[in-house]
Amino acid sequence: MLLKIEDEQIGGNDKLLNSNPIQSGKIKEKQRFYMDIFKARKVSKEIAGVKVLQDISLCVSQGETIAIKGTNGSGKSSLIKLIGGIYEPSYGNIERAEMNIGYVPEHFPENIRFSINDYLHLIAKISGKLEQKINKKIESYVDVFAIGEFLQTPLRKCSKGTKQKVGIIQALLKEPDLILLDEPLTGLDQTTQSKVIKLLQAFANNTTIILTTHEQVLISELAPRIIEVDKGKIISDSFVEIKEKLNIIKAKVPQNSILQELTFIDQKLIEENTVEVKVPFTESDKVLKILLEQGCSIIELKEMR
Ligand SMILES: Nc1ncnc2c1ncn2[C@@H]1O[C@H](COP(=O)(O)OP(=O)(O)OP(=O)(O)O)[C@@H](O)[C@H]1O
């Protein structure tokens, strides 16, 4: 069951809950449709006598993308584990919605004997996914992450980066409502990092994403809400505007009349038979396909914010 946002519930004294613009009414549209999936009030977590989290008050709404940052040992992983239910509070109160959670741990387990292929199929099976659908999904992730040649390799023999890729794939395969990622870019090369960001941007449209990171690129590309922790406490919780990334496509059109068929695209004729099209990054592939189908040839493709 999801927890419903009710103004009375979150109004009042709790400064941190009210600092969330979604709930404080600054983002009215979102408030109308979004529900809380996690609420913590004055939560502390003690492990073996150590307070790893202290006095945590936090509210997460469905559909948010949140980055948790902080120095080493500040409590980022502990907070993500608290949100996901791996940790339960020692003190304070928690409410969690029932959710299908995909979790990418900071360190992938070292001693898994299964091959990548068997492991991913097993995870999918445990999550109750249909065999046929899942085969296609696994194939496409294997392709995106370029791990085809290691499919039959036992996981414990794979490189750190390959294990990290498998860690991400197993979480996404579950088609989760909530994706928790603990430092997901660690150990990945630049190309794979960009692919992970792109994948998460696609998931962010209809999935709640919470990640811990030291990488500014992940924060600026993905997370409008940034929580900072220090010594197990939340020391700031703020929102930034993420400017949508656009792709600018320049294309030669066989004849100008084609442009009348493309009125739904932001386009202008810059020379005879040459059009410039601005599209949101996530729509770019679709628009490129349409242009090519109309017989256009692509001259240039560049990104801008
Ligand atoms: N299971 C545990 N037992 C004892 N102490 C723990 C445990 N888990 C975390 N801690 C302690 O809690 C503090 C926060 O750890 P946590 O892993 O949450 O930090 P982090 O911000 O994720 O660190 P890093 O950036 O280095 O991964 C650290 O001092 C750590 O030693």
From TrEMBL:
Q: Where are the transmembrane segments?
A: none
Q: List residues of the ABC transporter domain.
A: 38-256
Cite the entry's keywords alphabetically.
ATP-binding, Nucleotide-binding, Transport
Question: Which is an annotated GO molecular function term of this record?
Answer: ATP hydrolysis activity
Family annotation (CDD domains): ABC_DR_subfamily_A
Q: Which SUPFAM superfamilies match?
A: P-loop containing nucleoside triphosphate hydrolases
Instruction: Identify its protein family.
Output: Belongs to the ABC transporter superfamily.
What's this protein's name? ABC transporter ATP-binding protein
Q: Which organism is it from?
A: Robertmurraya siralis
